[in-house]
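Input record, target 12 of the design panel.
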């Protein structure tokens, strides 16, 4: 829809007057028409949680509206359908409030209007403390077996305390999280799907059903039923985990020390012993030269992370009553789904490499040319998924597992954000996968942490970038293998079936290739210098 600045200015300067109470405003067709105008479009495209910035917005429709209220106060929750010229749409959750005091509106005003001669503004209600208090109290006083359209749930883990305070958690990309009473977090999902959100399902299952302590405890949620009777998650309340930051930042700091040791200890990079690929190691198996270079702390942390990852998969693989979580075998349907998805993604990334080759140089250009040269081999590896040869099981998995989804607290790790891969549909995120897909995601994150450390500190190190890359690849093997040493043993001890050694290596290679190809699109579009990381990951797989 073409923008009309004069109309927008008119709306901002001379608000429309609606002679209906606020409680009946959403039934007023004139209001809805004005609200859905380009004024709302201008507001939405400026929001951090808006995911359509790379597409051209056509128009916005109101898909659902419902009341979020107590006995005294009424707010509206809206599900907006944002339509694009590229012939697709996205749904977003936007709660609204009407305020007459400009101090409440600030930069959050969406539309200036007058209701029964009271001038004011429609704003995003999450910015209003009164709204946040109502939501908290509705969860706190939730009753079991709620059958109303807006359903509030409270877990047995919820501590029944009065509302004291609420504040924004910080800058988030796709959701808005509110910290209550400095003890719990309510995540409002902004991008909405016609189904229960995987983050809600997984968090509730692991915390409430399985008692897994290394995820934030599930405290409550808000669901609505749409006009077709489908349950949609709009809010998830969890315990606030005090932490020292995420594991990616932690690993960056630790790996920086490792690279500084190259100079401080006069390490001969070419003389470093290299571990076999996908070889399970305990710390006692690591050669003395590697311990002298890396130290013990990083390997101990990798073992701890492997332990927590294994415990998560053991919890997810030990359910035999709930079909949504019950382990299942590989089959033809899964294979067709997997191949179709990956071949489409691969072709997309292939086009990106061809179109962005001019942005690359050095090793990145060399690896990109190798990728194009060996494209048929990469495609063949994706096609070569024979489920009849696989004996392991598929589980519900994290789906977007990397070091940024892990919080560090003292000497332990807590796993967060189970929403799944951002590019995937809600249905795809719930497909049961080999748990080694999560492991591969973490391994790719190790690889990123190593290369990001080099890129971020290249002027600090005395070695050449090529020498640092060489040392980084040696370190990468040891991090992976120490992780596998702990992870595989714990999984086997718990009788979770992830296949025999050859099957595990096949699945890991497959998932690592899938993940690196996935990463390639982002790097080529956003920061071409970093494209060397997924390209090196692809090269590691296709050449061995």
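The sequence produced for target 12 reads:
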């Amino acid at each position: 829809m073409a923008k009309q600045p004069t109309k927008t200015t008119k709306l901002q300067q001379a608000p429309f007057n609606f002679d209906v109470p606020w409680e009946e405003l959403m039934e007023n067709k004139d209001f809805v028409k004005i609200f859905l105008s380009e004024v709302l479009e201008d507001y939405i495209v400026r929001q951090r949680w808006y995911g359509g910035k790379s597409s051209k917005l056509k128009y916005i429709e109101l898909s659902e509206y419902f009341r979020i209220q107590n006995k005294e106060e009424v707010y509206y929750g809206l599900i907006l359908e944002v339509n694009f010229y590229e012939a697709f749409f996205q749904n977003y959750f936007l709660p609204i409030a009407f305020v007459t005091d400009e101090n409440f509106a600030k930069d959050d005003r969406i539309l200036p209007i007058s209701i029964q001669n009271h001038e004011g503004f429609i704003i995003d209600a999450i910015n209003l403390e009164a709204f946040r208090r109502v939501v908290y109290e509705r969860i706190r006083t939730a009753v079991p077996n709620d059958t109303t359209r807006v359903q509030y749930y409270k877990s047995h883990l919820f501590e029944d305390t009065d509302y004291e305070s609420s504040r924004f958690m910080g800058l988030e990309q796709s959701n808005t999280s509110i910290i209550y009473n400095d003890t719990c977090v309510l995540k409002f999902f902004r991008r909405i799907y016609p189904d229960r959100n995987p983050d809600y399902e997984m968090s509730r299952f692991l915390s409430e059903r399985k008692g897994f302590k290394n995820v934030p405890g599930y405290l409550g949620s808000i669901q609505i039923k749409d006009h077709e009777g489908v349950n949609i998650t709009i809010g998830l309340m969890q315990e606030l985990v005090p932490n020292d930051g995420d594991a990616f930042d932690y690993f960056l700091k630790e790996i920086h020390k490792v690279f500084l040791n190259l100079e401080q200890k006069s390490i001969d990079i070419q003389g470093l012993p290299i571990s076999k690929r996908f070889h399970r190691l305990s710390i006692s198996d690591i050669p003395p030269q590697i311990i002298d270079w890396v130290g013990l702390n990083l390997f101990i942390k990798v073992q701890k992370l492997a332990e927590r990852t294994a415990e998560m998969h053991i919890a997810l693989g030990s359910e035999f009553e709930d079909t949504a979580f019950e382990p299942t075998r590989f089959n033809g349907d899964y294979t067709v789904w997997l191949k179709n998805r990956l071949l489409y993604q691969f072709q997309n990334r292939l086009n990106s490499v061809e179109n962005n080759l001019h942005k690359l140089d050095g090793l990145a250009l060399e690896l990109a040319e190798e990728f194009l040269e060996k494209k048929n081999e990469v495609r063949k590896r994706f096609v070569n998924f024979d489920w009849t040869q696989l004996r392991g099981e598929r589980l519900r998995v994290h789906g977007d597992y990397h070091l940024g989804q892990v919080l560090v607290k003292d000497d332990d790790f807590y796993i967060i954000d189970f929403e799944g891969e951002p590019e995937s549909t809600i249905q795809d995120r719930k497909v049961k996968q080999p748990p080694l897909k999560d492991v591969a995601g973490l391994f790719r994150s190790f690889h990123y942490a190593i290369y990001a450390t080099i890129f971020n500190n290249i002027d600090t190190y005395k070695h050449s970038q090529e020498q640092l890359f060489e040392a980084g690849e040696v370190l990468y093997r040891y991090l992976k293998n120490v992780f596998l040493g702990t992870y595989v043993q714990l999984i086997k001890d718990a009788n979770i079936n992830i296949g025999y050694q050859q099957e595990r290596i096949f699945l890991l290679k497959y998932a690592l290739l899938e993940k690196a190809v996935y990463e390639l699109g982002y790097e080529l579009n956003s920061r071409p210098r970093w494209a060397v990381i997924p390209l090196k990951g692809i090269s590691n797989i296709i050449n061995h």
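The longest strand covers residues 57-69.
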